[in-house]
């Protein structure tokens, strides 16, 4: 009796190793059979779409209406909102003789652009009121940034992410150039300037002009 109980314990013990199949084909076939019973996804199936009863606009029609709504929105703003800005209008004051620096920049309305941070500085050399020796030194230090045709120094910068920073940077560069130009010492007077000839402005020959028509008597 005791031997039978021991045998039963060995057979039904939870720690006994589970039996393994010699082949995995049975599990694979079982998975295939389960997959065959799945229903296909009919969400994007054309055959199962609802019937179009011509009771709504197409996608292109909705886009067209949206464009019309946007245009009307800005037309209403032009008619009712823009006249209110006249309160902030200021009269134009031309620059004085002491304001010799000109800054140029670009602005794209409604969108951002990397070129918006760029700043360009223009200044006429004659407005700096330098002597001939100082002018010679300044043009040597400026190099190709001096334009002979307009007698201007043109600097540009997009080094910093903000436009005001680039304007300040260009202003500081010009101040340093003028400071180095006015320093007492070697003025590089023996170094010649390699400047090209300014472009000549072509004028229409007077001899080619049509003769004036005689006034009708």
What does this structure look like?
- This is Small ribosomal subunit protein mS35 mitochondrial conserved domain-containing protein.
- It comes from Phycomyces blakesleeanus (strain ATCC 8743b / DSM 1359 / FGSC 10004 / NBRC 33097 / NRRL 1555).
- The protein has five helices and four strands, in the order H-H-H-E-E-H-E-E-H.
- It has about 220 residues and is of the alpha+beta class.
- The protein has a domain at about 100-180: 2-Layer Sandwich (Double Stranded RNA Binding Domain).
- The protein has a four-stranded antiparallel sheet with strand order 1-2-4-3, with helices on one face.
- It is elongated, with a radius of gyration of 43 Å.
- The protein starts with a helix and ends in a 36-residue tail after the last helix.
- The model is unreliable at about 1-15 (pLDDT under 50).
The percentage helix is 25-40%
CATH fold title of the domain at 102-181: Double Stranded RNA Binding Domain
Number of strands: 4
- The percentage of residues in β strands lies in 5-15%
Shape: elongated
Number of helices, counting only DSSP H or I runs of 4 residues or more: 5
Global structural class: alpha+beta
Query: How much is the radius of gyration in Å?
Result: 43 Å
User: Averaging pLDDT over every residue, what do you get?
Assistant: 81
């Amino acid at each position: 009796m005791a031997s039978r109980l021991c045998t039963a314990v060995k057979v039904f013990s939870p720690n006994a190793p589970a039996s393994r199949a010699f082949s995995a084909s049975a599990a694979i076939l079982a998975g295939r059979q389960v997959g065959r019973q799945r229903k296909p996804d009919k969400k994007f199936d054309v055959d199962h779409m609802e019937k179009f009863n011509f009771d709504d606009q197409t996608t292109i029609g909705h886009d067209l209406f949206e464009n019309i709504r946007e245009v009307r929105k800005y037309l209403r703003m032009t008619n009712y909102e823009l006249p209110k800005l006249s309160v902030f209008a200021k009269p134009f004051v031309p620059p004085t003789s002491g304001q010799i620096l000109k800054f140029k920049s670009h602005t794209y309305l409604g969108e951002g652009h990397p070129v918006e941070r760029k700043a360009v500085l223009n200044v006429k050399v004659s407005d700096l009121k330098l002597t001939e020796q100082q002018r010679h030194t300044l043009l040597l230090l400026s190099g190709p940034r001096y334009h002979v045709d307009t007698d201007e120094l043109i600097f540009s910068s997009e080094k910093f992410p903000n436009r005001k920073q680039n304007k300040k940077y260009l202003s500081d560069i010009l101040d340093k150039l003028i400071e180095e130009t006015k320093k007492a010492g070697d003025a590089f007077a023996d170094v010649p300037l390699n400047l090209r000839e300014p472009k000549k402005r072509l004028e229409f020959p007077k001899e080619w002009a049509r003769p004036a028509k005689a006034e009708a008597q």
